[in-house]
Amino acid sequence: MTKIIILLSGIILMGFIAWWFFGKHTVQAKQANIKQNKQSVDIEVKGGYSPEKIVLKKGVPATLNFKRMDSSSCLDHVIFSDLGIDQKLPQGQVEQVKIDTTKPGIYDWACSMNMFHGQVVVK
Ligand SMILES: [Cu+2]
Fold first, then answer.
1. In angstroms, what is the span from residue 46 Cα to ligand 1's centroid?
2. pLDDT tens for residues 100-121?
3. How many angstroms does the Cα of residue 88 sit away from the middle of ligand 1?
């Protein structure tokens, strides 16, 4: 009996590990609030980015408000390589990053060491 329980828990554990590594994890996308033909999203920078996926409406001027709560120097710059943005994020402050929404597309951002990532979808 004990053997069966061990065997079953082993199988469940392996299934969980397989799901964890190979399963499709969907990240919740955050839609920007649109007000008077402007859109903005607040992003908390703390051991990564929250939210890390943002949907912006095409053609509406957009601002991402990065608030860096993390003292790690790893997160002191945010880089949108496709948009030519490399902006400093002072700690404990809100730093506005303007995003060009004239062209629809998917734009990735990363920290200065390319360890943490986020994504903006313009559509
Ligand atoms: Cu980094």
1. 11
2. 999 999 999 999 999 999 999 9
3. 13
